[in-house]
Amino acid sequence: MSDPPFPELMTNFRELQGLTQEQLASRIGCSAASVSRWVNGQSLPHRPLVEKLDKELCAEGKLVASWRQATTGHALPEWARSLAGIETRARSLQFASPVLVPGYLQSPSYADAVFRAWWPDASDEEIERLTQLRTQRLSQLPQLRVTAVFPVSGITGFDPVVRQEQAAHLLALVETGQVRIHLVPEGTLLLAVTAPLMVFRLRTGETVITSDHVDGNVVYGADRNDRLTSLITGAMAEALPARLSLEALKDLA
Fold first, then answer.
1. In whole angstroms, what is the distance from residue 185 CA to residue 240 CA?
2. How far is CA 51 from CA 62, 105, 136, in A?
């Protein structure tokens, strides 16, 4: 379900906070007449005031996204329409994968096996290049805190050498404090998550959700955040707690 237009969304958040238009105006440092014009759809605030509104009303980036949609036709800024732009501005990532270990967390032999399955005609040099890009990416994003949910079969389905390397790699990542793992046990399916789903929380407070598909990465509009975020919550409910997941990884390493 899409979020309502900016005036209605602002009113909804204002009422949730129990504020009058006059009180809101006082808190963000503008006139009550200005707030009235925004509510009536007669004008839109400038970006600095939108950010104050979003923070004051605990909108978690939704007001900023709605304002951007109204002013530019896009809920996301230009840089946020590519995965690389999102990554560098994110402070945390929730990742749910229905089959494989998420790419950020793959070990070299695991990534090598995945790429060879996807592109059987690729040269050894190309596979090596792709593997290095994938396995080095997380170390290039030290500010990113990752919570990953994926099935234990994404590890056990590989041969013993790859399985042990991948399990040991995950344990090492957990020890850094940058990564938290939740394994979905054998016999449980993530029915609602049909493709790798990534929920990025940006340093600005905004949420950006992307998904990996066979033809590339898709960035979703902010109007779909609530529904897609609920899929991550559902995946977490199907998974083992972090402590039990860690014990399961130690058994595989």
1. 7
2. 10, 34, 34
Q: What is the pTM of this model?
A: 0.70
* Mean pLDDT, contiguous 10-residue spans, the chain (253 residues): 77 93 92 89 86 91 83 59 80 95 96 92 92 94 96 96 97 97 91 91 86 78 84 92 94 91
Taking the C-alpha atoms of 163, 165, 129 and 125 in order, what is their torsion angle to the nearest 10 degrees?
-80
The amino acid present at 35, given as its one-letter code, is V
CA distance 23 to 225: 29
Strands (E), the chain: 90-96, 145-151, 179-184, 197-202, 207-213, 216-219
What type of residue is 161? Answer: V
Sheet with 145-151: list strands edge to edge.
Answer: 179-184, 145-151, 90-96, 197-202, 207-213, 216-219
User: Distance (Å, rounded) from C-alpha 70 to C-alpha 41?
Assistant: 11
User: Residue 93 in 3-state DSSP?
Assistant: strand
